[in-house]
Amino acid sequence: MKTLAHVSDLHFGREDPVVAEALVSELATLRPDLVVVSGDLTQRARRKEFAKAVAFLARLPRPQLVVPGNHDIPLFDVLRRFASPLGRYRRYLNADRFPAFDDGELSVLGMCTARRYLWKDGSVDPSQLEAIHHTFADKRDRALRVLVTHHPLVPRPGAHHPAIVKRGHEATAAAAAAGVDLLLAGHLHTGSVSDLRTAHEGGHDVIVAQAGTAVSVRRRHEPNSYNVLTLDGDRLTIAVRAWNGTAFASREEARFARGRDGWRRLDGTAQPATGVQSSTSTPSGQRT
Fold first, then answer.
1. H or E stretch at 275
2. What is the DSSP string of 184-196?
């Protein structure tokens, strides 16, 4: 059995210290096999915010896989944004362009979708499409293949104004063709779990899990939350753990089983033929 904790949008500089302490305590008890942080560790990419983020991550279990978000690129410091957009992030956190984790059961690749020009919406570049193929093409059949980005590659279920990452469609096609099982992202500050049914030759169904904001006060009409993913053989459970004012507690779960044709949902939700389906949570939210 493997457990993965998916946290996102910490926004140090606008964090809630009570919630942050509760998350540290909960993850210490959970002891996940991997902690994934899908971007926006800071509010304005300032040095003191990165220092806070580093200190916070040092208190969480390891190993960790971290990718940057758009808030980890300066916004108002225009000179730094264009000259060295991820300079501080790399100095304080991670200089690896493609952070990865592989223990034979979990195969995880992280990619940066934040861009100096597309500060809010993000993009995938051609080299990243190639990295998806090269990372996952030769993995063991039963390993859970996970792709981590800050910006969701597909819209949130039920979104009236969907945020489409540039080359997001190409990235999901590449992920499906490479046998990726799971897409993890943040950015929207709303949690959801859905299914992307693909029609790409050689591809298969891909599960999409978006995390809310773990510890920030920028909550977008829903409480702070993070996701706990449990892989037990050919069964995968994704639990949304939401802050109830005093502690994190399970809000809902989505359960999947892996068969010959890929993953299928076990809770009986209807699945249309294409697109993003079956959200366990479709709260109102805005792009950040």
1. strand 275-277
2. EE-SSS--EEEEE
In this prediction the pTM is 0.88
The 8-class DSSP code of residue 222 comes to: S
Q: Listing from the earlier edge strand, what are the strands of the sheet with 206-210?
A: 100-102, 106-110, 144-148, 182-185, 206-210, 192-197, 275-277
The number of folded domains in the chain is 1
- Give the structural domain span for 164: 2-277
Residue with tokens 């991550």: 57
Owner of token pair 């990619």: 111
286 in a domain, yes or no? no
11-21: pLDDT as tens digits: 999 999 999 99
What span, in angstroms and rounded, lies between the C-alpha atoms of 165 and 156? Answer: 12
Q: What is the CATH number of the domain that holds 58?
A: 3.60.21.10
Structure tokens at 38: 């899908």
**How far is the CA of 138 from the CAs of 36, 104, 130, in angstroms?**
23, 12, 13
pLDDT in tens, 72-110: 998 766 666 666 678 799 999 987 889 999 998 999 999
